[in-house]
Amino acid sequence: MPLSSVVETTKERRLAALKKQRSSRWKQMKQDRYLYLMLLPTLLLVFFFSYLPMPGLVVAFMDWDIFDQFRSEWVGFANFERLFQVPAFSQAIWNTLWISILSLAVGFPVPIIFALLINEVRVKYFKRFVQTVSYLPHFLSWIAVVGILYTIFAKYGIVNDIRIAILGPDTERQLFLTDQSFFVPNVVLTSLWKEFGWGSIIYLAALTSIDPQLYEAATIDGAGKWRQVRHITLPGLLPTTVILLILSLGNLFNSNFELIYGLQNAFINFEVISTLVYRQGIAEGDYSMATALGFVQGLVAFLLIYLSNRLAKKLTDVSIW
């Protein structure tokens, strides 16, 4: 057979295989059309609130005048230079990293442990009760949580009442929310309390995908609960854990603005990047600096996700892309 005929035949086979693959994909999409329809509102929200505003990043390179937007002067990287000259900027970066690292160290393993414990509960009604109680705080707004904290830790709140009941009536009442050393633990533990139950859902879902026959075989071989967790459960959770860890590392330069801003007062000197953006940028009308700071924050988050994803792919062969 001539070489040209062989090449033509190979091309035709490839085209036929490609058409067949496209056809099967279209059939699969058509079969799952209702699932895609349910996904559509989320995709629209992400598009309108995450991708559509992206051209606005150009404000970071301009001396933006909100009243004369189309005649704003192009200043290049001047806003970024000015950003690093803000006295509170370096401290805000450190504070953001400190809270994020503590939240990650405390808040990341707790949902995994909680999911493992819940998975071992055999009393159905008690299991549902614990799950419901742990999920409920997630549905509270952060401002509502701040209000609860102000009530609990008030001078005549329940915490001070318990202290006096235990230590005696001569005990001095304390203003916990005005104590600088109490601020960071309060933020970290409050975030943990609000989100650990909700965060355990995805791990509980991952646990259901582990083959029960593996546990049966391990029991027959004499493996106890701890060895089953170590050699079956944890490896089964590894892909989910790695992906969530990568996404969490991308949030190291983010912080909970609502909680931190709500707990700040005249006695607390603790700025993070998000509160600095609000005070220096939005509150003072310096939108160019606020956009520049947001741009730097997003760029660092992308680099963290990219590097952690590459590292995870090398070490565990699990990655986002």
Q: Would you kindly provide a written description of the structure presented here, covering whatever features stand out?
A:
With 321 residues, this protein is mainly alpha-helical. Helix content is 71%, strand content 1%. It has a single domain (77-316), classed as MetI-like fold, CATH 1.10.3720. It has a two-stranded antiparallel ribbon. α6 (124-135) packs across α9 and α13 (273-283) runs antiparallel to α14 (287-316). The radius of gyration is 27 Å and the shape is flat. The model has no long low-confidence stretch (mean pLDDT 87).
Given the helix and strand composition, which structural class is it?
Answer: mainly alpha
User: What is the top-level CATH class?
Assistant: Mainly Alpha
Rg calculated over all Cα atoms: 27 Å
CATH topology: MetI-like fold
User: Strand portion, in percent?
Assistant: under 5%
Q: Could you say how many structural domains there are in total?
A: 1
User: How many DSSP E strands?
Assistant: 2
N-end to C-end Cα span:
43 Å
> What is the H-and-E element order?
HHEEHHHHHHHHHHHH
Largest sheet, described in full?
2 strands, antiparallel
Strand order of the largest sheet: 1-2
Number of helices: 14
CATH superfamily: MetI-like
Segments where pLDDT lies below 50 for 5+ residues? none
Mean pLDDT: 87
Task: Using the alpha-carbon principal axes, give the shape.
Answer: flat
CATH architecture: Orthogonal Bundle
* Helical proportion, percent range: over 70%
